[in-house]
């Protein structure tokens, strides 16, 4: 029997991906024992991030600044736009340091089964950005799943009227694998071997 | 490339048991996306627990009150004291509702290899509580490991001068456990402690 406050915290922590009720319980005890070295700094850091971090109005990345650090970086290539489903994919791509262009977060994948249609995703802003005159190539970095490929086809269709190259990363990506969980080498190799969509 | 603030939060979350850098990353994204329903309530709950929850000065349990709810409960049996290494063990025992006495948290196990000696653990307060005239039995609920058994022997030795019964929980087959998947030590202990069928 632990207190109501502790049970509430365990319940909330258990909702995080990768944690269940048992590991949440262990985590709370760990936080209470390491109050000064972990608990208090974690609480402050969490409040700071939730307070200060917002989606970038240009690309959809999460950052404390808007536009985000990537969008605001003058050294990055405005001519190449990399379309990803999620912010996690930006982080995965940035870890490889294999891409120096700009990003565009769709906010998910087209999924008839889940009821995710084009209106739910950031396609209009993608077309607007891709047609701004500076962009010469759009890389559709979408997973090799049914939803991912459906989304890639739809995106290529929406972009087809523009005078730009639309590419996809090479099929070095394992079928069914999501970008977020892949090793850096595979992601980098797939980017280097990207090809035009016919 | 995520912001310094996000990286710091990922680093802190990754220190929790059961989370690594990858799952911490996913957790942070999840918190940012579910800001209202999860992120903000979790931050408030965490602050509340770290602010309000303290170790009970009697038994060592964590609670918002001191003495804790268990120590303050007049319906519990003052005659039986259950010695556990950690607060997590109190929670595990309380979930079973099989024990209605009081607890005493040692704060760990004797471990010559880790340099944990008797001074680091709550043995003096254990002897004082066990000798208060009300306690008639001390249950040493310690794990069946080398450190656990060393600690149990030491505790039994420290308590030997008192007019009380010192017991340990039975070792045997876990309820629902199949012989085939159990370790040799458990099977051997269960066999040694066999009893007649009435």
Tell me briefly what this model is:
Chain A has 198 residues and is of the alpha/beta class. Chain A contains 8 helices and 7 strands; from the N terminus they run αααββαβαβαβαβαβ.
Could you tell me the strand content of chain A as a percent range? 5-15%
Radius of gyration of chain A: 20 Å
CATH class of the largest domain in chain A: Alpha Beta
Indicate the percent of residues in helices of chain A.
40-55%
CATH fold annotation of the largest domain in chain A? Dna Topoisomerase Vi A Subunit, Chain: A, domain 2
Counted up, domains of chain A total 2
Explain this structure to me?
Two copies of one chain form a homodimer. Chain A has 198 residues and is of the alpha/beta class. Chain A folds into two domains: 49 residues, Helicase, Ruva Protein, domain 3; 135 residues, 3-Layer(aba) Sandwich (Dna Topoisomerase Vi A Subunit, Chain: A, domain 2), CATH 3.40.1360. In chain A, β5, α7 and β6 form a beta-alpha-beta unit.
């Amino acid at each position: 029997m632990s207190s109501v406050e502790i049970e509430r915290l365990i319940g909330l922590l258990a909702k995080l991906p990768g944690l269940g009720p048992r590991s949440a319980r262990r985590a709370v005890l760990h936080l209470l024992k390491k109050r000064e070295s972990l608990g208090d700094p974690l609480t402050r850091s969490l409040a700071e991030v939730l307070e200060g971090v917002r989606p970038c109005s240009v690309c959809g990345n999460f950052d404390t600044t808007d536009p985000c650090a990537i969008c605001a970086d003058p050294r990055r290539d405005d001519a190449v736009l990399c379309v990803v489903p999620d912010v996690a994919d930006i982080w995965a791509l940035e870890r490889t340091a294999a891409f120096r262009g700009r990003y565009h977060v769709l906010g998910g994948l087209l999924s008839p089964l889940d009821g995710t249609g084009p209106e739910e995703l950031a396609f209009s802003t993608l077309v607007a950005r891709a047609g701004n005159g500076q962009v010469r190539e759009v890389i559709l970095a979408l997973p090799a799943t049914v939803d991912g490929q459906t989304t890639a086809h739809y995106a290529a269709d929406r972009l087809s009227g523009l005078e730009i190259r639309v590419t996809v990363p090479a099929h070095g990506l394992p079928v069914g694998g999501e970008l977020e969980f892949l090793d850096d080498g595979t992601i980098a190799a797939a980017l280097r071997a990207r090809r035009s969509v016919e």
